[in-house]
Each structure stands twice: as C-alpha cells, then as structure tokens.
Amino acid sequence: MPERALKVLPVTPEPAGVPIDCRNCGAYQLCMSLWLKTGDSSLLERVVKKKQVFKRGEVLYRMGQSLEYIYVIRGGSVKTCINTEDGQVQVMGFHIAGELLGLNAIGNRQHNCEARATGVTSVCEVSVDRFEELAREDPAIQYEIFKIMSAEIRHGQELLLLLGKHNADERLAAFLLDLSRQFAQRHCSATEFNLSMSRSDIGDYLGIAEETVCRIFARFQDEGLVSSECRHIKLNDVERLRQIACHRPFRDL
C-alpha cells in the first residue's frame, strides 16, 4: 500500500526570496540572520556546502566519525542510535524535517552516535568550520545556537523523566503527543501523520518490548484513541492521550 502524504497546513507568508523548503527548517533563523543582515544569498551557499539525499537505511554518519558537517533535515526522517559493547543497538532519538543533527559532536569533534535514514531523506550539509566562524562573529547566530541546544538538553531531561517515572501506556501516549507537537511546529497536521520508525525501534527508544508496543497500539485503537493503517496514524482523542500521559509534556518546545 503506498504511503500517504503528510497533511500540510497553511503557513504565513515569508519574506520575498526565501526558498519554500526552508520556511519550516530548524536552521531557518540562523540562515535568516545571515540573509536579512547582508541581503546576500550567496553567503548561504558558502555555508551550506551541499544538499544530499539518503535512501531508507543509509547512514549519514557513524559513531566515532570525525565531525565535518551539521546536518539539517529538509525532508524525511532520521533515527540516531548507539551500538553497545554487547552488540545491541539503543535508539537515542527520532528526527524529522527541520531538525539539526550533529550539534552534540562539536565538543570533541567526533560523532558519539550513528544517524540512519528511516525513509527517503534530504538534508543540507552545513560546514562546521564555517558555521563556528560565523557564530564567533555574530551574536545573533550564537543566540540561535543556544536556543537549539537548550531545547535538546530539555528534551533529554524530559526523556529521562519519562523512562524513570512512567509506565508503558504513559510512555507511548507521551511519545505520540511529542510527535504531534513536532509536526504542528512544522505546519503539518498534528493529528494525522506517518510513523517512519518501526514498532521495534519505538519500543527500544521507550524502553519497552516490541510486543508491548503492539499490544498498547491495539488497545488504543480498540478504545478509539487512535486509528492506524500500516504506519499511518490518526490521533482521534488527543485529550484522552494527554490524560494517559498524566498531563506531563514530553517535549513542549
């Protein structure tokens, strides 16, 4: 069965000359700091070295690889994971269009996880050296970077709380609400979207067995909270999902 397209909601008009596929990007304010200040779009081309497309399963970067680029997801989705010493894989996060990857490697110039496309994914590769040079020169760019990193730190803290204090039903409900908020921020439907990750990956991320994830999804459907067709999900009762998640926002950026 062909995968359904995401429902995209109308967006407010952008300044003239801004590419349409940039308007929902996580690096938008960084680029606009350069563009609006100089009026020179060629400056962006010198920072964004190239645009890449990865097929499902292809690796953007591997654990231990030297940091060269910050990756900005233009379309598609990526999962980040760590290979443990005993050969197991721990999913660290799922990332959709508009998010930045690789910021956590700036400190030691080495990636501490693997990033793999979960579907056809297009990205901008931003030169780290040029990125840092511009950040040193422009306080506005520094401020935008601080905001992005602050959001990532808060997300990590909320994930620890979710895993430590919530049961399996609450974790899955919070996970779906988190995706809902992310899609809403990108001007897509907050109640109807595709899950790019497998049930196994969801369970790994949330610290519960794949069978438990499938069982909870089935119960949520029986209770009318969600509708599911393959990987296409529709949230029918967001308020009830919030009640199950104990009204604790998982990622309220």
What does this structure look like?
This protein is 40% helix and 22% strand. The protein starts with 27 loop residues before the first helix and ends in a 9-residue tail after the last helix. Strand 10 and strand 11 (232-235) form a beta hairpin. Strands 1-8-3-6 form a 4-stranded antiparallel sheet. Helix 1 (28-38) packs antiparallel against helix 4 (139-165), helix 5 (168-185) crosses helix 8 (238-244) and helix 6 packs across helix 7 (210-222). It has 253 residues and is of the alpha+beta class. Residues 166-239 form the HTH crp-type domain.
Task: Summarize the entry for a quick read.
The protein has 8 helices and 11 strands. With 253 residues, the protein is α+β, with helices and mostly antiparallel strands. The two termini are 34 Å apart.
Count of alpha and pi helical runs: 8
Strand sequence of the main sheet, in spatial order? 1-8-3-6
Strand content: 15-25%
Principal-axis shape equals globular
Low-confidence stretches: 8-16, 36-43
Averaged pLDDT, please? 80
What composes the largest sheet? 4 strands, antiparallel
- Alpha-carbon Rg, integer: 19 Å
Structural class: alpha+beta
Topology, number of strands: 11
Q: What gap, in angstroms, lies between the N and C termini?
A: 34 Å
Order of helices and strands: HHEEEEEEEEHHHEHHEEH
Helix content: 25-40%
Descriptive terms for the model:
11 strands; alpha+beta; DNA-binding; CRP/FNR family transcriptional regulator, anaerobic regulatory protein; four-stranded antiparallel sheet; transcription regulation; WH-like_DNA-bd_sf
